[in-house]
Design a protein that fits this description.
The complex is a heterodimer of chains A (346) and B (350). Helix content of chain A is 36%, strand content 16%. With 346 residues, chain A is of the alpha/beta class. Chain A has two domains: 206 residues, 3-Layer(aba) Sandwich (D-Maltodextrin-Binding Protein, domain 2); 96 residues, Periplasmic binding protein-like II (D-Maltodextrin-Binding Protein, domain 2, 3-Layer(aba) Sandwich), CATH 3.40.190.10. Chain B has 350 residues and is an all-alpha fold. Among the domains of chain B are: 65 residues; 165 residues, Orthogonal Bundle (MetI-like fold). The chains are: A alpha/beta (346), B mainly alpha (350).
Chain lengths: 346, 350
């Protein structure tokens, strides 16, 4: 009995000791707290190809991860000063509200309900996802307009299924749905030829494609039939921190627009173009003042993390196993007909 | 002569009736069509050596995946330069168990005190760090088999005494103690573990005042401990009920009070009876740990999930799950064997 009591007492003392070590930050001044603790607390997924994933050395990478790295480069001067917390979809918002993390960058769709309803603020969009279709290359289908009279494989009971129904109804196409419970089953059915096309979110399609027997025989159609804008999230009511995260993302998008990359940024130091001068934090620009950072914050982001185009190509671009085409999608820059547009860094 | 006898034995055991003959042949046939392809996939066609997915071209299992990710599956995302701390802690554990097996009764007592009283704190200090020059490794970086073991070992250590207290409480004549125990047991047995973990991981932080936060891993270990303690209590109660009235009376007649009689007479006998039940609960607890995935903790199965979604390693889920199954089986089998050994050693009748 005594021993048992001792154990329980010991455990609870230990629990409170540990509790005092971790997780405590002043919620209303995240920027100062982050500077003081020396790392950015970033919430990521439990593994999503191209977005947030660890490699065999335990290093995190992906489009979502690079948002956190950019914030760390801006605030702390070193993109590697990030502590990642893998989160399940259910706990991600509570983890942010409870202060376990300060930036949630976990393929989270920006919707009214989430933005307005639960004490969170979306700071921007780092990837425009949406539902798409995959077909076999030899089928001759090159656009969604060729999908009349097809068999369509998809997951059951998700918005994917509803979107699919709406799409075919609005086009007046006839189709035959073939639905399964699990993604792996859908892939197997499509791969074995039971359907002509397979539909889910495009980033998912691209990742599933690599599981096919011959990934090169399949292609994702360019059109997108639903809107899933994914972006980083912060707590509501901390505008200083919100601004830092928002502009860390914006400056990467803006840098691409002006052709500033991690490789050429040093040679751009002598540029006469005032817009580029501001982006790279050349002499005389005062972009850091309002953010509570020094004026080299944007230089460090682009130098250490890269511009948006570099990040995209590195994690989901044509040379990765995911190979999501950027041209013609909403993720292309607005100058190329996409939706990617950042307010000016000025 | 000998050969004939063997044949006779064979015939009697496997072909005694037409039905038995049919079953024997069917089972042999079933083995014939399943085992060779399985063996081919696991061993003969498999690729063992390599460093990337494209090295696997033979068509069998791609063990390169497990090979390359092995360190992550075992240690999770624990920083590579600090892994020696985990190894040291488990080394101390293994050494003490080894010494325990060869030591005499007197030294054994000290080893037990060390294992249950001192070692948990040493190991937690090693894992977490924060003093004596050891950098802090947050629990968010713990993972893999290491995390599976941390969760299950601590839950086992704490749920066992708690379960005994609850079992005694349920049989107590003091109404407060009795009804509290009944309420506790019935509540925790009545809710699914996944809900408990969800509450501990997701809802609990919302009830705490801002700024104070209990580490997620601690919350999860407490949740699993309370949950399993309820099951443990019922197992132990079964043992207590099996002890005859005479034992209680005998203890009383020797002048022993409630605690003394329970600790020296009743419990040692009761626990011995329910060793299989206790082992069952421990094995169930160990196998329940992958559920912590719902609160974002990456134990071994979570790490395999993470690995199989890495863009460079997509499509290797089967290999990962086979590896996980093997690890779980190895640990559960060891627990079952150990309990059997314990049962035999403690056998006093006849």
């Amino acid at each position: 009995m005594k021993k048992a009591l001792k154990l329980i007492c010991g455990f609870s003392i230990f629990a409170f000791l540990l509790a005092s070590c971790g997780g405590d930050s002043s919620k209303n001044n995240t920027l100062e707290a982050t500077k003081k603790q020396g790392f950015v607390k970033c919430g990521v997924s439990q593994g999503l190809p191209g977005f947030s994933n660890a490699d065999e050395a335990g290093k995190w990478s992906g489009i979502d991860v690079d948002v956190c790295r950019a914030v760390a480069a801006a605030v702390l001067g070193d993109a590697s000063k990030v502590k990642y917390t893998p989160l399940s979809a259910k706990e991600r918002f509570t983890a942010l509200q409870a202060g376990d993390i300060d930036v949630l960058s976990r393929n989270t769709t920006w919707t009214l309900e989430r933005d307005a309803g639960i004490g969170l603020t979306f700071v921007g969009v780092n990837f425009y996802d949406g539902q798409g279709f995959m077909v076999r290359k030899n089928s001759g289908i090159t656009s969604v307009n060729g999908l009349n009279n097809t068999k369509v494989c998809t997951n059951t009971g998700t918005t994917t299924e509803l979107n699919m129904r709406d799409f075919f109804k609005s086009k007046g196409f006839s189709y035959e749905p073939v639905v399964f419970e699990k993604a792996d089953e859908v892939v197997a059915a499509y791969d074995s030829g039971r359907c002509d096309t397979y539909t889910t979110d495009k980033s998912g399609l691209a990742a599933q494609r690599t599981k096919m027997k011959n990934p090169d025989e399949h292609v994702v159609l360019p059109e997108t039939i639903s809107k899933e804008p994914l972006g980083p999230v912060v707590r509501e009511g901390d505008s200083a921190w919100e601004d830092v995260v928002r502009w860390s993302l914006n400056v990467m998008i803006e840098a691409e627009e002006y052709g500033v990359t991690s490789k050429n940024i040093d040679s751009m130091m002598s540029t006469e173009n005032p817009a580029i001068q501001r982006i790279i934090g050349a002499e005389g620009s005062k972009t850091g003042e309002g953010l509570g950072l020094d004026n080299k914050w944007s230089y460090r982001i682009i130098k250490q993390v890269g511009n948006y185009g570099e990040i995209y190509e590195k994690h989901v671009g044509a040379n990765t196993p995911i190979a999501l085409p950027r041209k013609g999608s909403a993720n292309a820059s607005w100058r190329n007909g996409g939706a990617l547009y950042a307010p000016p860094v000025r | 002569m000998m050969k004939n006898l063997n044949l006779l034995w064979f015939k009697e055991k496997f072909f005694s009736t037409p039905l038995n003959a049919f079953l024997t042949i069917s089972i042999i046939y079933l083995g014939f069509i399943t085992i060779p392809p399985l063996a081919n996939w696991i061993f003969f066609d498999a690729t063992f050596i390599g460093s990337k997915k494209s090295d696997c071209v033979s068509g069998g299992a791609c063990w390169v995946f497990v090979n390359v990710w092995f360190e992550r599956f075992i240690y999770g995302l624990y920083p590579a330069e600090e892994i020696w701390r985990i190894n040291l802690a488990f080394g101390i554990l293994a050494a003490s168990i080894l010494v325990y097996n060869f030591a005499n009764q007197k030294i054994r007592k000290y080893i037990l005190i060390f294992l249950f009283g001192v070692f948990p704190f040493i190991s937690l200090f090693l894992f977490h760090g924060g003093a004596l020059g050891l950098p802090v490794v947050d629990t968010r970086e713990w993972g893999g088999l290491f995390l599976t073991l941390v969760i299950s070992v601590f839950a086992i250590i704490f749920c066992f005494p708690l379960g005994i207290i609850l079992a005694m409480g349920r049989r107590s004549t003091l109404p407060v103690f009795k009804y509290f125990s009944i309420g506790f047991i019935e509540f925790w047995r009545g809710v699914p573990l996944i809900t408990v973990l969800f509450m501990a991981g997701v809802m609990f932080p919302l009830f705490l005042p801002a700024g104070s936060n209990l580490d997620k891993l601690i919350r999860v270990i407490i949740a699993i401990t309370l949950f399993e303690a309820a099951y443990m209590a019922e197992v132990v109660r079964g043992g207590l009920q099996a002890i005859t009235r005479g034992q209680y009376d005998a203890a009383k007649s020797l002048g022993m009070g409630y605690w003394k009689s329970h600790f020296f007479i009743i419990l040692p006998q009761a626990l011995k009876i329910v060793i299989p039940g206790i082992t069952n609960t421990f094995i169930a607890l160990f196998k329940d740990t992958p559920l912590v995935f719902v609160v974002g903790l990456l134990e071994i199965l979570g790490m395999i999930n993470l690995a199989k979604t890495n863009p460079n390693w997509l499509g290797l889920a089967t290999e990962g799950y086979v590896f996980a199954a093997f690890v779980y089986w190895a640990f559960c089998f060891w627990m079952s064997r150990y309990s059997l050994k314990l049962e035999n050693r403690l056998k006093t009748s006849n």
